[in-house]
Structure formats: C-alpha cells, structure tokens
Description:
Structural class: alpha+beta
Distance between the termini: 71 Å
Shape: elongated
CATH superfamily of the largest domain: DNA Polymerase III, subunit A, domain 2
Mean pLDDT: 92
Number of strands: 25
Strand order of the largest sheet: 14-11-12-13-25-24-23-18-21-20-19-22
Radius of gyration: 25 Å
Largest sheet: 12 strands, antiparallel
Number of domains: 3
CATH architecture of the largest domain: Roll
CATH topology of the largest domain: DNA Polymerase III, Chain A, domain 2
Strand content: 35-45%
Amino acid sequence: MKIVVDSSLLSEALADADKAVSSKPVMEILSGILIQTTDEGVNVTGASERATIQSYIMDEQVEIIRAGSVVLPKIALELISKMSGEIEIDVDKDFGITILNKNEEIEISGFDPEEFPKPPDINWGDTTEMSGKELKELIKKTAFSVATEINVPEITGVNITLQDNLIKFLATDRRRVATIQRFMEVKESGSAIVEARGLVELEKIIFDKDELHFGFSKLRSGEVYVVFVKTERFTFYSRVLEGRYPDVEKMLSQVVGLSTIKVNKKEFAKSLDLIFILAKEEKMNQVRLTADAKELTIRGNGKGMGKGKRNVYSLSLEGEPFSISLNAKYVIDLLKAIDSDVLSIEYTGKMTSVIFRGDDNEGSKYVVQPYRTEA
C-alpha cells in the first residue's frame, strides 16, 4: 500500500477510530488501527471485542498510489498527530511502514491486516434517521447511570427500544434509573442492550449537524445482534450485550409522587456541590434534603470534619413537607444531564424512589433510591 494524504485529515480519522479501541485489548492487534484502500478512498478502523468504529477518507481527499492495507501500531497515531502537511505512507510486503513528508522520515513496524477482525456483517434494512444532536442528547441523559459491575454485564449497558414511532433509552445500576424518550419516525422495531462505554465514545465523535442512520441488524430469529450508526464520516457498530434487562418499567409505573418541590436548578446544583465537599468524606456520599413551602434545605456531614447546610428558595411545593437522604454523587450526575432552568423533585414515600425531572420538553426522568435513615 502507498498513499499520500493530509496529515491532519488522517490524524482526525485515526482519532475517531481509536475511540473504539480498548485500553486493555484482548489481542495485541486490537491495540492498532486498520487502514485499507477501497474504490471510494480509505477506510480507517478501530475495534474492540464489542465495538467497531470505521472512519472514511473520501477518494478526492487521498491519492492512492498502490492499493493495500496495514494495521498501524498505537504509536503511529501519536507520530502522525505531530506531523504537518501532506504525508506519504508506504507499506512493504512485510508490513514495514515508512511515513514521509518534506522534513521527516519515520520507519515503524505494522501488523498483518488479515489478522484484524472484520466489522460485523450488517443487514442494513430500514433505518431511523435523526440528527447528531438528537442522538448525543439520548446518550448524555442516560449512559452515566449504568453499572460498573462486570459480573452483571447487562446493566453495564443502555437498553435501547424502537417502537411505535418512539425511541427510548434506559439505564440503571439498580440504585438509580435514567430514562428518556423521543417521538420520531421509527422504521424498525426491537430492543437491545448496548455497552455504555461504546456509546460514550460514540458521543465524542458525533457532530450536532450530522445526519445519522440508526438501526438494528437482526438474526433470522428476529433477535437484534448489532446496533449501528452510519454517517458520511464514519460507521459505528456495537454487538449487543446478552442477558435480560431488569424490569425497571414496572418499578417506574408503580411510583406515585406524594409531594413535589420545584427549585432553580443552577442554585440547587451550586448548593449541592458545596455540601458535597463534606458529604464525600463519608462512604455513601450522603446528604439530607428537607423540603417545605419556603425552601429546600441540603445538609451533609463530613467524616469527623464537621457539617454544613444550605437553603435553596422553593418555587413551589405541592403536597406535604418531606425529608429524604440520598447519595449526593448520583444527584450531581443527573443534574448535569438536565438542561432546564427549573428542577422538579418528587417525593414518593419514606423509603421509596425519589424522582427528578426537568421541564416536559426534555422527556427525561431520573430515579434515585433513598438511604434508610431515621426521620
């Protein structure tokens, strides 16, 4: 293979593909990035055991002198990012790589591309079209709530459902829930659990203006085995996680608010951040919220270091005053996902879930389990 391409263009494609690469790859070759020429230009592919990102450099953006392919080692990404202008990449039959520009010449060893795993075989079918901004919002508002426990793999992913012109993302670690839904023209139906790590990396390379094709690829049985997102710049593939997702919907439908307090979200977040400085010294990051018609009081104790409280003006209170103890870190996480100026906190009972929402336009809901404490 021999190509001439702008270094910044190649560096960007490599960086996007590298988002799929695991920090601890199961095989050495998966630490590298595959570059291969095609009739349309050059494909740049990064992969892990579950996710693949394939970036595209179009034919008019690259000069292909000799067709071929090679797997670049990880160090090549850093080297190319330091170069400027057009570079020539020349690969010999033993996968030795020479990278040249006007002032520099670098020689490194590559890997055999035949050993690199191929992207999943996709049944493209009908896809759901959406903007990059819409998909980024769905990921941002849910992926932070997944579990990190590898021994329960299904809740390390986001449950994605397409049905009845509705797309829904749901995530839980069994102690909190994040869910959002959007009405749009859905061309396919089904449900799949997608690893959150891959979705978070996908969010980083999507532009708001991107026009996306989102879809499920299914087996003959109708079971979803790959979720994909395709744009003009790249295609993202993720194999789905096996297992049965917790029946969170049933739990959510049974939760009924007894009292609801509304506060200014920025003021509440600022106050919680202050009290969290003390609360995070405790193992459970515990803070106590006490609501009445005038204000919401946030209290926290530091492990032998003191205590603090801060009051936030209440915009409204429906129902009776209440007190509840929560994990402050969980609340801080969900506040980052809410864009509204007004925050609603729904109290559902002494030892039942607390619900956080923005305004109705967001279509998102966050549920946090309280701590068992004395009144």
